[in-house]
Amino acid sequence: MIILFHPRATKPRNCRLPLAILALAAVLEGREEYEIIDGNLDDKPVDSILSFIDSRKVDLVGVSCMPGPQMVAAMEASREIRRLRPHIKIVWGGYFPSIYPDSTLNAKYVDFVVRGQGEETLLELIDALRGKRSFDSILGLSYKDTFGLHRTNAERPMKGPDSFPWSPFHRLPVEQYLRPSFFGKRTAVHHASIGCPFNCSFCGVHAAYGREERMESPERTVDILKHLVSKYGADSVQFYDMNFFLREDHARKLMDLMMPLNLRWWCEGRVDIMSRYSDETMATIKGAGCAMIFFGAESGSDWALKEMQKGITTEQTLIMARRTRQFGIIPEFSFVVGNPKDPERDTRETLRFIRKIKRINPDSEIIVQHYTPTPQRGSMYGDVDGQISFPDTPAEWATKKWMDFTLRIDTSAPWMKRKTKKLIDNFEIVVGSRWPTVQDIRAPRWSRTVLKTLSAWRYALRIYSFPIELQWAHQFIQLRKPKRESL
Q1: Residue ranges of the B12-binding domain (predicted)?
Q2: How is the beta sheet containing 236-239 ordered, strand by strand?
Q3: Closest CA to 452 of 421, 481, 486, 479
Q4: Residue 293 in 3-state DSSP?
Q5: In the chain, what's the furthest Cα-to-Cα distance?
Q6: pLDDT tens digit string along 249-301?
Q7: Cα–Cα distances in Å, from 145 out to 58, 111, 149, 479?
C-alpha cells in the first residue's frame, strides 16, 4: 500500500481539493492499493497513517508540502511516523522539497525527495523499493545512499496534464471541499496547466519545474469542470495555473467551451500577454464567467521589473487596469516591494504607482508584500548576491524567523532599512482599509464602512505613519487578507 499524505495547510473552512495528491493518486489508481490522508479534514492524520501501517503492508508514505504552515505540519508528522514506525520509508514532494532538496534530505525522517512533476517519479520509486530498478536511474529523484550521502539525479522532462489520467475524485469527499467564496457557494479548484515559461528572479516556480508550461487541452478542462458541476454541484472555480492565459487562441477556444457551464471563476494572468488580447477576446473571457484575474505587477518601477527579469512594463499594468474596468473584471495586482538594488527608490515609486492604478480602476484589489527571494537553479541565494543564507533543515525553516520570512510577515532583509519596511507595512494597512477586499464574504457591511471612514483622510493626505487606529480596527474586525490565504 502507498499512503499519500497532504499535511494541514489551512483552516478546515478554507480547505480546497488537494490537487497535488490527487494527481499522484491518478497514476496509482488501478495499479496500486493506496489511501489519501488529508490533514485539512483529518484532525489526527498521524493516527490514521499509523493505523494503515499496522493493518496493511505499507511500502511508502508520500508527503506533499508547500513552504510555511504545511511544511511544519509535514515535518511534525514525518518525525512522529519515523519515531514510532522507523522501518517505513518516507518521501517528500511538492514545492518546498523541490526548491530545497538538500535541506529536506538533511532531516533524518526523510528518505527521498521527488523534485518537480512527481507522477512518473513516484511510480519508478515504488519499483525501486521493490528491487525492480536502481534509485540512480530515476529522473527527478534525490535520495540518501547507503552511506547517508545525498544523491541528486538529473531533472525529469515535464509532461502536460493530458499525458496523465483524471484525478480520482471519487476517492475523496468532494462535497466537503466545495466551500463558499466570493465567486460562488460551492467553489472548486482546478489546475489546467503546469509550469511557467518565464524567469522572474524572485520566484521559485521555475526552480521547481523549469522554464516550460504544459497546458491541458480545452476539451479536457471543460470535461473535468462538467464533472464537478454535474456530480458535485460546483458553481464556481479557482484556476491555480501560473499563467491561465498563455495563448490567445487557446483562451478563446476554452472560453467558448466554458460559457454554457455558467461558472464564476478566478485565475492568474500576465499583463504583457493580456494587454495584447483583442477586445473580442476580452469580452469572451468576461462572458465565460471570469470575475477576477490576479496579475503579478510586482513593481511600479520599470528598472526594478528589469532587475527581476519579469518581462513586463508598468505601462502594460496600467493598460490592464483600464481594460479590466472596461470589461467588468476585477483585477488583483500583487506587488513585491523593496528591490534589493535600491529598496528605497523602488518603494517610493511603487507606492505612487499603486495610487495611479487606483485612480484608473478603483475596484483593483491590491496585494503588497516585501521582496522575498527564493533560491534559483544553480544558486542557493536567488538574486541577492549571497546576502541571504537559507536554512539547512526543515526544523530551522520552522523557526519563527524563517516562518515570518516565508509568509512575508517580516523578511528581516539585510538590504531593507527599518523605516522603509515600516512605510511598506503602513501603506499596506492604509490602502487595504481604504478599499477593503471584496473577497471576504464573511465580513459584515458595517466593517467595511468603518475601515473606509477611518482611512479616508490618511489616504487623501498621504499620511501613512503610525496608523494605530487602523491596526486596532483590523484586530477587532479581522478582515481576510487575500495574500495570507493564497500562500
Answers
A1: 4-136
A2: 179-181, 184-190, 236-239, 264-269, 290-298, 330-337, 365-370
A3: 479
A4: strand
A5: 70
A6: 999 999 999 999 999 999 999 999 999 999 999 999 999 999 999 999 999 99
A7: 21, 9, 5, 49
Which region among 22-36, 192-206, 330-344, 459-473 has the lowest average model confidence (pLDDT)?
A: 192-206
Mean pLDDT of the 25-52 span: 96
Q: 3-state DSSP call for residue 342?
A: coil
Confidence band of 487 (pLDDT split at 50, 70, 90): very low
pLDDT in tens, 188-204: 999 999 988 887 777 77
- CA torsion 73-74-75-77 (nearest 10°) is 80
Q: Which residues have CB under 8 Å from 124's CB, separation 6+? A: 133, 137, 138, 141
Strand 236-239 vs strand 184-190: parallel, antiparallel, or unpaired?
parallel
Q: Which residues contact 29 (CB under 8 A, 6 or more apart)?
A: 165, 168, 171
Could you tell me the sign of the dihedral formed by the alpha carbons of 143, 146, 150, 151, in that order? negative
How far apart are the two ends of the chain, measured CA to CA in Å? Answer: 31
For the domain bounded by 2-142, which CATH number is listed? 3.40.50.2300
Over its C-alpha atoms, the chain yields an Rg (Å, rounded) of 23
- Nearest-angstrom CA–CA distance, 364 and 297: 12
Three-state DSSP class for residue 294: strand
> Nearest 5°: phi and psi at 165?
-70, 165
Give the model confidence (pLDDT) of 68-96 as tens digits: 999 999 999 999 999 999 999 999 999 99
Cα–Cα dist 476/432, whole Å: 15
Give the Cα separation of 351 and 357 in Å (integer). 10
Check if the beta carbon of residue 62 is closer than 8 Å to that of residue 2: yes
Is residue 316 classed exposed, middle or buried when 0-12, 13-18 and 19+ CB atoms within 10 A define those classes?
A: buried
Distance CA 305, CA 200 (A): 9
Q: What is the model's pLDDT at position 384?
A: 52
DSSP 167-199: P-GGGS-GGGG-EEETTEEEEEEE--EEE-S--
User: CA 203, 155, 396, 90 torsion: positive or negative?
Assistant: positive
Q: Please, are residues 95 and 208 in contact by the beta-carbon 8 Å criterion?
A: yes
| pLDDT at site 376 | 55
**What cell does 439 get?**
473577497
Residue 477 grid coordinates: 474586525
